[in-house]
Design goal:
The protein has seven helices and seven strands; from the N terminus they run βαβαβαβαβαβααβ. By secondary structure, it is an alpha/beta fold. It has a single domain, classed as 3-Layer(aba) Sandwich (Rossmann fold), CATH 3.40.50.720.
């Protein structure tokens, strides 16, 4: 496994849930970790907790669906550390319902956060990683990218797109030493689910730490090895044939 000490890692949506768990694991591995998110209050709280655990943390506002916000965020990382070795595209949004009732606003919000954001951040990372001759991008997809469920058209479309984009980036990155992978989680007990009382939230759940462990297994591989795709879900969750 590769030693990640002093490598520079960016985690989008790193202020809570899966993103926070991955950021914490990267910090414990010795990385300098930049976390970005839209909710500044949660972002600052997350940074304080990560600093208390011994990490070297940079926290800054980031709206992944906004091109100028992405460019500003990466410029801050440039000024602070001058490199980007790892990018974890974790930020996203969920909305859904019967397709005939979906608004364009809901569609654009999900596509923007999940897919456009992954593109914009990956583009910014590519520009830096190509100069370095190496880098690793991990996209957080979803099992919805492989097994759609009812009422999830925007999210399903976005995550299918993330998986397609992952493959395109893996292909483009080969000659430049850039590795791109995709991790598809099943049900994870994130804050949104903790605050929800929907019947679907009675399904089997994983802790965010379980996804972080899988992410680290992918990120700590030698630079010349790609763990292209991983599907991680609770043992009892319906997957094959789910609907």
């Amino acid at each position: 496994m590769s030693d990640l000490k002093d490598r520079v890692a960016i985690v989008t949506g790193g202020n809570q849930g899966i993103g926070y768990a991955i950021a914490e694991s990267l910090a414990r591995a010795g990385c300098r970790v930049a976390i970005g998110a839209r909710n500044v209050e949660k972002l600052n709280n997350a940074a304080a907790r990560l600093n208390q655990s011994g990490g070297t943390i940079l926290a800054a506002h980031l709206d992944v669906a906004d091109e100028s916000s992405v460019e500003d965020f990466f410029a801050k990382v440039d000024r602070e550390w001058g490199a980007v070795d790892i990018l974890v595209n974790n930020a996203g949004a969920f909305d859904g319902g019967p397709v005939e009732d979906l608004t364009l606003e809901a569609w654009d919000r999900v596509i923007g956060a999940c897919l456009t954001g992954t593109f914009l951040c990956s583009r910014a990372a590519f520009r830096r990683m190509k100069r370095q001759g190496r880098g690793r991008i991990l996209n957080i997809g979803s099992i919805s990218a492989q097994r759609p469920r009812l009422g999830s058209a925007p999210y399903t479309a976005a995550k299918f797109g993330v998986w397609g984009l992952t493959q395109a980036l893996a292909l483009e990155g080969r000659e430049h030493g850039i590795v791109c992978s995709c991790l598809h989680p099943g049900n994870v007990l994130v804050e949104r689910r903790m605050e929800s009382s929907k019947p679907s939230d009675d399904e089997p759940m994983m802790a965010t730490e379980s996804i972080a462990k899988a992410a680290m297994a992918m990120l700590q591989l030698p630079d010349d090895v790609n763990f292209l795709e991983a599907i991680v879900l609770p043992r009892d969750q319906l997957y094959v044939g789910r609907g």
